[in-house]
Amino acid sequence: SWPDRIISGIQPTGILHIGNYYGAVKNWINLQNSNEIICSIVDFHSITLSYASKLLDHKKLPENILLMTACLLGCGLNSEKSILFLQSEVPQHTQLCWVLSCLTTVPRLARQPQYREKSENIKDIPSGLFFYPVLQAADILIYKATKVPVGKDQLQHLQLASHLARKFNALYGETFPIPELIFSGNIASKIKNLRNPHKKMSKSYPDKLSRIEITDSPDDITEKIKKAVTDCTSQVTYEPDIRPGVSNLVGIHSVITGRSPAALCDEVKHLNTGQYKLLVAEILIETLKPIQKEINQLLNDKSFLISVLKNGAIKASKITSDTWTVVRKKIGC
Ligand code: ADP
Ligand code: NA
Fold first, then answer.
1. Atom of ligand 1 nearest to the CA of 42
2. In angstroms, what is the span from residue 202 Cα to ligand 2's centroid?
3. What atom of ligand 1 comes closest to residue 153's alpha carbon?
4. Is domain 6-183+301-331 classified as CATH 3.40.50.1820?
């Protein structure tokens, strides 16, 4: 059996939002009490859409990377206890990605739901977008990770990583553990886009009203929650399939408080959706306040943030170079 190893990643495509925080990051912080967490800021993943969509300005990437570093540390990731680093500083991720890409097929990658969704409205689809989940599999397998705490949006990607681990093991002999996905404690599903609750909340949508960023001011939070799309029924109920908008707000309320949607709906039955929105906004503002204070302090010391990433890359490289040496030998290169 393999020793527990926990790895996760996040794209520096924008500011951390509450979907990232409650879907993933908060779980890392909890796990960190008894485990080392390996956390990669996946800049190579973040360039997969930039050419096609113009959503990501590469000139802003260095700034976004430091901002993401500050956000993760501000949320409580401990750079002494855990390993926080930049993906592109550890070359074995992309080296293993190439090897893994030779073990899967074009039809399998073309069936990946995230690929299909992301490439839907793009005329000239970048091939990097196609290989996105293979690089993600490499991010995981290069550490021989056993556990991957990510949000529910990543389920299919993790299944691909498991498939590639099995395939490699079958061809070249036992090398990788089969990584297991672990979900955040009480998050029932993805946190949804505030403007279109049929989609997930994401950093990569142009409409800033669609997400609550971890650094949003109280006024921004209130405005965004007020403008969140709901239906014309004024009662607050939790019915994600038929009332995704208001249910998303109850879902957010539920992950913050740790209380069940049913209990919350019962407690606020005297409020209409408009009044309920103000309550949710207020709770979010209070919850994010201490994190924002930390982030602001960290952003005053850019050289500290850079040194955290440098040290993280040194620690990460010790693991990845060992794996890579073994892999190379096994494949005969
Ligand atoms: P984004 O789509 O916002 O760019 P990333 O791809 O960087 O997010 O994912 C970072 C982490 O946040 C992953 O573990 C992912 O599963 C989680 N995550 C992203 N969006 C959501 C969401 N809307 N709800 C829950 N978890 C999410
Ligand atoms: Na994403």
1. 7
2. 7
3. 16
4. no
CATH second-level architecture of 208-296? Orthogonal Bundle (1.10)
> In the numeric block, which tokens belong to residue 27?
């779980």
With H, G, I as helix, E, B as strand and everything else as coil, classify residue 176.
coil
Is the per-residue pLDDT at 187 higher than 70? no
Q: Is the CB of 190 under 6 A from ligand 1?
A: yes
pLDDT at 128: 95
- Domain segments of the chain as ranges: 6-183+301-331, 208-296
From CA 108, how far away is CA 116, in angstroms rounded?
12
Coil, helix or strand for 56? Answer: coil
CA 150/CA 280 separation, integer angstroms? 24
23 close to ligand 1 (CB < 6 Angstrom): yes
Q: Is the pTM of this model over 0.90?
A: yes
Q: Do domains 6-183+301-331 and 208-296 have the same CATH topology?
A: no
d(CA 85, CA 83): 6
**303-322 confidence digits (pLDDT tens):** 999 999 999 999 999 999 99
Distances (CA, A) of 119 to 14, 50, 128, 135, 296: 20, 12, 11, 17, 36
